[in-house]
Amino acid sequence: MAAGVVASSAQVYSANVVGYYNATIPANQYTLLGNQLVNSTSNDLNTIAGSLPNKTTVQTWNGSGFTAAAKGSGGWVPDSTVAVGQGFWIITPASAGTVSNTFVGAVVANTGASVTNQLTGSVYSLVASANPYATDLNDTNNTLNTSTLPNKTTIQIWNGAGFTASAKGSGGWVPDETISVGQGFWIEPPAAGATWVQTLQP
């Protein structure tokens, strides 16, 4: 990530943290990804996933079920928007082999600022970290901020063949799994719900 991009004779700089990350997508198997950057054009599929092969499909969670989109010769139909902090399923055709998708844009929060995700109690949400960090759930780097979520919150992480569950208790997250950059996951807070605040560290 770079915090001051745009080279010109006028020395213009970006006030935001901007950059990119690559997501590797194996062929013909579901992968759980997350969008973590605000694209300057749009966060629709034709912008953030326009280079993926035809017959790729995406499933986004609408709170009660999935909304499907498919890539064809004319682009994505429907051309769904994937918000920052939203997770989604993606599967590419077997003929494509392993592919990589590059997400480009700005981090939603400036350095020292915070972003808030309000989580509904006793309901699973398909999310991603709004800040593109890789760290453990107990958050020794103080970046993911899952350590501040209430006890009895659960997270389900896709391992390529099934889910690994982790639960928050008085001693922290057990097991203490790692969330990678660009990774989506399911999260369910207890009945009272939760406010997940993430601060972009200097």
Structural write-up:
- This protein folds into two domains: 18-106; 114-199, no CATH class.
- Strand 12 (163-169) and strand 13 form a beta hairpin.
- The radius of gyration is 17 Å and the shape is globular.
- The model is unreliable at 1-10 (pLDDT under 50).
- The chain has one helix and 16 strands.
- It has 202 residues and is mostly beta strands.
Keywords for this entry:
202 residues, mainly beta, 2 domains, five-stranded antiparallel beta sheet, 16 strands, globular
Radius of gyration: 17 Å
* Proportion of strand residues: 35-45%
Q: So how many helices?
A: 1
According to DSSP, the number of beta strands is 16
Q: What is the CA–CA distance across the termini? A: 12 Å
Strand order within the widest sheet? 2-6-3-4-5
Domain count: the total is 2
Helices and strands: which structural class? mainly beta
> What is the helix fraction of residues, given as a range?
under 10%
Biggest sheet: strands, sense, closure?
5 strands, antiparallel
> Kindly state the mean pLDDT as a whole number?
91
Shape: globular
SSE ordering: EEHEEEEEEEEEEEEEE
Residue windows where pLDDT falls under 50 for at least 5 positions = 1-10
